[in-house]
Design brief:
This protein is mostly helical. 76% of the residues lie in helices and 0% in strands. It is built from 20 helices and no strands.
Length: 461
Amino acid sequence: MQVAPTTGGSADEPSLLNPGLIACIATAALAGLLFGFDTAVISGTTEAMVRTFRLDPFWLGITVSAALWGTLVGALTAGIPGDRFGSRNTLRVLAVFYVVGGLGCGLAWDWGSLVLFRVIAGLAVGGSSVLAPVYISEIAPPSKRGGLVAAFQFNIILGILLAYVSNAIIASMDLGLSDWRWKFGVSAVPAVVFLLLLLRIPNSPRWLVGRGATAEARDALGRIGMNAAQVDREIDAIERAGEQAATAQPGGERLSWRRHSKPIMLAILVAGFNQLSGINALLYYLNDIFAAAGGSLSADMQAVIIGLVNALFTVVGMLLIDRLGRRTLLLIGSAGMAACLSVAGLAMGGMLPAHLVLWALIGFIAFFAPSTGAVIWVYISEVFPTGVRGRGSAVGASTHWGLDAVIAAGFPVVAAMSASLPFLFFAVMMALQFVVVLVYFPETKGVPLEEMERKLGIGAA
């Protein structure tokens, strides 16, 4: 028996202007701001850390990537408590990790303690990268799900921009070698706000129904703007989808290759290519890249320009993702990124004028933000069935963070050997992404979560 698309029409969806829905989406999306800030703030501290701790390129890579190993562990493990205790409840714990990580880095007494607290912050980043999009996807109306989950990505970009601006402001205060402490420490402020807001939003209605808490699920649906008739239809659709999953896998749905190979591969591919674009390596070492390329503007100011472009074109992605669709955006972005990265690589290698590096990276960000940047967390959060959505999302997120850690650790070593090689490698990867998306990726825009299994051809175990 197929589940009717009871949530696919506008008559069955809450208004996007409902205060309860806005509060839920905005709170979960705030995790993205912390995610972006904590990952990008390192770019303004590398020079001071090299001097303070006497780091060579190898140990600089280890220091920068330390938080990313934490994100990998957080992403790998967050799905289990997320499925068991709910995304909202687990995010509350991760908010505490954000606070401790930020304050700890600011107060670090030696290199080892700095790395430890960066790992703690990384655990929060990795876990929230899994669970915040899951929460939003389960709360959001199907016809607007792409744009609302992309709000998480926008907040990542906003966090990155705020990190660049914060770094530039603190650098202008002439605090000497201690400025890196302030750059890390200020992240504790939005983390406290995030924790307080999480105390005011409900659990996901889909998770509640799966736990048998139907009355609480009805209350949660009412709080996000559904009337009594809409609530009845939504509960009925969720329960029928749960019955189908229980019939397919008695005793509870398990994430398995046999049953979920298609969404697992899609999550791995979209997350893997996101990092093989080179985006995070470029963001972490942006100041170093611009210092090497030269130019009339300071490295900090060029980084702010990149952050502004990233924010602007992420908004473009949010506006287009439910119109053009995920697949189309990935195809356009892949082609554009491959071209821009090629120009950047040739300019870094001296085969083109050095001033083209800034323009090439602006172009790269303009193609990345509305495509791979906007799509990754949307796609990962929507292709898995509800019963395994947390664990499935963890597969994609851990792929993302694992590759991120490896690339971030290796980038300064490879760049020291050849300034152009990393960019040219990333360009080839984006050309490969174009082919893979064209051949393998289905379009998922507007598909209700309860119908995604049929769309992806997920069969019984």
